[in-house]
Amino acid sequence: MELLVVIVILAILMSIAIGIVQGIVQRARTTRTEGLVKLLSTACEDYRLDYDVYPPGQDSRALHQALGSPRKVPVIREQERTIYATKGPLIEFRAGMLEKGAPSLQPPPPSAIVDAWDQEIHYLRPGMHRKKGVDIWSDGPKKDKKEDDITNWVEP
User: Fold this and answer.
1) 3-state secondary structure of 80
2) pLDDT confidence tier of residue 148, bands split at 50, 70 and 90
3) Of 10, 91, 153, 154, which has the fewest Cβ atoms less than 10 A away?
4) Cα 74 to the center of its chain, rounded Å
5) pTM of the entire structure?
6) How far is CA 95 from the centre of its chain?
7) Burial 14-38 (b: 16+ CB within 10 A, else e)
8) Domains plus CATH for the chain?
9) CA dist., res. 53 & res. 115, Å (int)
10) Are strands 135-138 and 150-151 parallel, antiparallel or unpaired?
11) Taking Cα atoms as reference points, which of 134, 3, 132, 130 lies closest to residue 62?
12) Cβ neighbours for 97, distance < 8 A, ≥ 6 positions apart
């Protein structure tokens, strides 16, 4: 009987520990995805400063191509000519930021940018929520629920 009580207590403690660990993992994934969305949003603004437009396309593959490639940026504009400087990519993509099986971390060829749940990041230009910018968001841990989306805009 005593052994049975000990086993039950251990089972209860294990279930509590598993719940705590799962919560920590979920918070870590959310934080990682928030950081990625902010990084992409900032890089899009930097791209706009260089080219006077936001990155082209309507998906994360186009975003990977635009932000992960070396850039030719105009540095001097004169009446008859423009002098360009070659700069590195706005984002150095790392493992875990791109879909599994991506042929390369840097384009070409472009790959889908993914969140911490391996779901593709969404990119919309022009934005519906940020009229003077772009919308970037993750569907969050529950793809079918909007309330857990991770976005670069603030809902009213």
Assistant:
1) coil
2) confident
3) 154
4) 28
5) 0.84
6) 12
7) eeeeeeeeeeeeeeebbebbbebbe
8) 29-151 (3.30.700.10)
9) 25
10) antiparallel
11) 134
12) 36, 105, 113, 114
